[in-house]
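User: Second chain of the day. Same drill as before.
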Amino acid sequence: MRFAVIGAGVAGLATAAALAERGAKVTLIERAPALGGNASWLAGGMLAPFCEGESAPASVVELGRSAIDWWDARVPGVAREGTLVVAPARDAAEIERFAARTSGHERVDEARISALEPDLAGRFRKGLFFPQEGHLDPRRALAALVDRLARLGAELIFGEDGLGYAANADVAVDCRGFAARPDLPELRGVRGEMIRLRTREVRLTRTIRFLHPRIPLYVVPRGEGEYMIGATMIESSERGAVSVRSALELLSAAYALHPAFGEAEILELGADVRPAYDNNEPRIEERDGRIFLNGFYRHGFLLAPAFAERAADLCFAQAENEPHLGRWLVKNLAGLGEIELPSRREDRPDPFAGFFENEADA
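Assistant: Same format as last time:
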């Protein structure tokens, strides 16, 4: 069976990996000329199911809990340092609200915050620590999945439209994200913006969620003084560059977390559109001969592992239902005993001759 996966974002790469790991022959097709340039490339990479429970359905928490193990088994650099949630003293009530809506956390005081993150010493009186969470570098993780697929014998095609390949595959999985909207008109776009900084003045080891009054902020360490700053969720399908307002809000919030971010270098500002359904949960569905896996909203790296495995299950189930001579013979001839096939070396009548009108058809 030939399996085609369209799209080299996190959903497509995870699905292709899930198929290839089960021994499937997989072709991954991406229209971009190289890896990157999509919403997955700009993601925060937070593996934080408990924190996401603050606004996400319970299913996101449950399905996301195994993500950190899935990624850790396949890509390098997965950090298991937990998530620290803090807020300015004047907004301490936000900590209580966040605690009431989440689970899996420990309450931490000023001393514990200082022990977890010495560079935040004396800046916050209380917070929440989620020890079972972690993070990864999305770009490093996606590149590692590409390498893994190559080692597993998958065919990787960049710079071509995957729909033509899908038409010729036995089973095709469409993971094109918001680009699939012509086929999935119920998708909506949610714009996300990020800033990548470098500073030697701040050293953080885990994701920090800063409950800023105007814009909740997350800061994800990427190593060697680099940090990804993100938070925006704008109901818009416009790509474009990062707006001045968003840049100011993100940078102001980072400065409020620690003033040393004011001296950081800006390495990158990026924006893209994430696909979402009305309930902000992903879906797997079959339409027009394809399996569509889409709608990850802001939970791509968190939920891709669980949904990739589900998509692989569906692919193999669909493959089992395809007409196949070998399976038909096993199913329909079982129990009939031995069938003696004719030998060319013996002058025996052909038992199948009656099935065909002439020798050429046989």
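The radius of gyration is 26 Å.

User: Great, on to the next one.
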